[in-house]
């Protein structure tokens, strides 16, 4: 059995690696060599990555790809995507090209409000708490002045603070529910700093509030934290064209295709098992751009899935309809993104990705990300309702299987030629490799 380790974080990087190699690997030297092979030869770059997190031992590569030809609001973009799944970038690029000759994507930011809450317990007279809040509200603003000063210069700040009575859900539970505008930053640090100051002000002011009894003065702050649920920070992306314009190689009957497509979306609207996979396909596009641009994909994921369940029933994020001979396909999603602060000026590839997108504002990035999600969803539904998903997916995956078997150049040429005409499956590839090697 492995032993626990004391003071691990204080060890040097070399010592950490040696400990891990000795503790967990039968061939420690091989493990050490592998970890070091993934170090960057530029010491400055490596140091930067080492310091992003604690206990760094190496780097974990994910490919950075690009999907060109995205026509968004009349302007072409090449979208950077960091993702390991083989068919995602190809699908995005295909969708981009398809829609570039059919009017392109339109994207609109609907609103940009962020949310944070101070969660606290108050045992006492609610009407007194309400009066206290009304009389103290201005203090929450004045006592956060030093935090909000710079954000206000950029046009952002605290929008409002309200008191919420949540005692119908949990005994004695109240919130200070605050809304924020954080402009081009994601705003997590700004919001959390404001909230922690609200909590201090709340406790201090309660202590000296004359109308409160001794026990009411002891209201208890449980925690202060932003919410990753941002239903008022919404972006919409859409495409539309006359049905007959949908015609192309795999769409020989555009009317039939449009109807099947709309039906597929309706299934995802009503059936949660399908909705989760449908939305996963959307997230393939969204996460890849969010990651490449140094944003927090876990926050984005959590917020978007909560939004997908806002009716109390998990449903599709995208929608489609046919109206007067026009095919329309769109999505609306919550996205709290930043193009300044966080990793954006630290990670060299994030900087490069943002530069490739012509250094967008947070609103512009919201539009690009939403479009990447819609494009991905279109590509998936187009395949699903026509050729089936495995055709394209397995063609892309073929390379991974060939790498797994360390196929040489001659084998690759023969195998790729064979699978141009035949359906790719893992077992069919393995069988062919084995036959070739006999
Ligand atoms: C695979 O990563 C994503 C899909 O399953 C999405 C979908 O089914 O819509 C193809």
Broad structural category: alpha+beta
What is the class of the largest domain in the CATH system?
Alpha Beta
Q: Indicate the overall shape.
A: globular
How many strand segments? 10
Helix content: 40-55%
Within the CATH hierarchy, at the fold level, what is the topology of the largest domain? 3-hydroxy-3-methylglutaryl-coenzyme A Reductase, Chain A, domain 2
> How much is the radius of gyration in Å?
27 Å
Q: Which hetero ligands occur in this complex?
A: (R)-mevalonate
Low-confidence stretches: none
Mean pLDDT, to the nearest integer, reads 96
CATH superfamily of the largest domain: 3-hydroxy-3-methylglutaryl-coenzyme A Reductase, Chain A, domain 2
Number of domains: 4
Tally of helical segments = 16
**Strand count, sense and closure of the main sheet?**
4 strands, antiparallel
Please characterize this protein's 3D structure:
This protein folds into four domains: 8-50, no CATH class; 68-111 and 234-387, Alpha-Beta Complex (3-hydroxy-3-methylglutaryl-coenzyme A Reductase, Chain A, domain 2); 114-226, 2-Layer Sandwich (Alpha-Beta Plaits), CATH 3.30.70.420; 392-437, no CATH class. Helix content is 50%, strand content 18%. Strand 5 (157-165) and strand 6 form a beta hairpin. It contains 16 helices and ten strands. Helix 1 (13-24) packs across helix 2 (28-37). It has a four-stranded antiparallel sheet. It has 438 residues and is an alpha+beta fold. The mean pLDDT is 96. The protein has helices at 13-24, 28-37, 43-50, 88-100, 126-142, 145-153, 188-207, 214-217, 254-270, 272-292, 297-308, 348-356, 362-385, 389-404, 409-421, 426-437; strands spanning 64-72, 75-82, 106-109, 114-121, 157-165, 173-181, 220-227, 234-242, 318-323, 326-334. The protein binds (R)-mevalonate (MEV). (R)-mevalonate binds at residues 85, 277-278, 280-281, 284, 380, 384, 389. (R)-mevalonate binds next to helix 10 and helix 13.
